[in-house]
Design goal:
Elements: E1 6-8, E2 24-30, E3 33-39, E4 42-46, E5 51-55, H1 61-69, E6 71-76, H2 82-89, H3 98-101, E7 106-107, E8 116-117, E9 122-129, H4 132-138, E10 140-151, E11 155-156, E12 159-160, E13 171-173, E14 179-181
Antiparallel strand pairs: 1-10, 2-3, 2-6, 4-5, 5-10, 6-9, 7-8, 9-10, 11-12, 13-14
């Protein structure tokens, strides 16, 4: 993906980057170390300021980096990245730098040190909202989205539009390493802006 296709997304519309329920890749960095992992349980929580929730198991290296740094990125991968999603979701970052091991290209975000994966269709930079009880009891992490970007070929004017870009459709995990990609639009009454 060319850098020329990335455009800032107004924070008031950042929740729409996740509102259709895609599988995400969570990346974090701390003290010169970085990692990326797949997460199927992520969702928007609030509009202003935009907030999200993501579930991260206690055993993951990404979670350790996220807790240490207080920040992370939700990368929204596309159908063309299904193999990468499966790979980074089924290997440990404790054993290898996944970016180096799998030839993943990352770029720096606007505000955070967490790596942002090239080729995705959206990126949300997130600041952790400390809730130690939720972290320990439920593996649930809440965060404020402080910056967001999307690929303008499939997201503009606050809306997803995948027509003509099948490889850029978002992935949806349906268990056991199986994914679906988002389908075609269905006409409906437009009730919001």
């Amino acid at each position: 993906m060319s850098v020329s296709h990335r455009r800032p997304v107004p924070l008031s519309k950042a929740y729409r980057l996740l509102n259709h329920g895609p599988t995400v890749l969570v990346s974090a960095a701390h003290d010169g170390k970085r990692n990326i992992m797949a997460a199927a349980w992520a969702m928007p929580l609030d509009f202003e300021p935009p907030k999200i929730a993501v579930v991260l198991d206690k055993s993951t290296w990404t979670r350790q980096l996220l807790e240490a740094s207080g920040s992370f990125v939700l990368n929204v991968p596309c159908a063309a990245q299904a193999d990468i999603v499966q790979t980074v979701g089924s290997t440990s970052g404790l054993e290898r730098d996944k970016f180096q091991a799998y030839g993943l290209q990352a770029f720096a975000g606007e505000l955070l040190d967490a790596p942002m994966l090239e080729g995705c269709v959206a990126w949300l930079e997130c600041r952790l909202l400390p809730e130690p009880h939720n972290h320990q009891q439920y593996d649930l992490f809440l965060a404020e989205v402080i910056a967001a970007q999307a690929d303008e070929r499939v997201f503009s004017d606050g809306r997803w539009h995948f027509e003509g870009h099948d490889a850029l459709r978002t992935l949806h995990h349906v268990a056991g390493g199986h994914f679906l990609k988002i389908g075609d639009p269905v006409a409906g009454k437009n009730l919001d802006d």
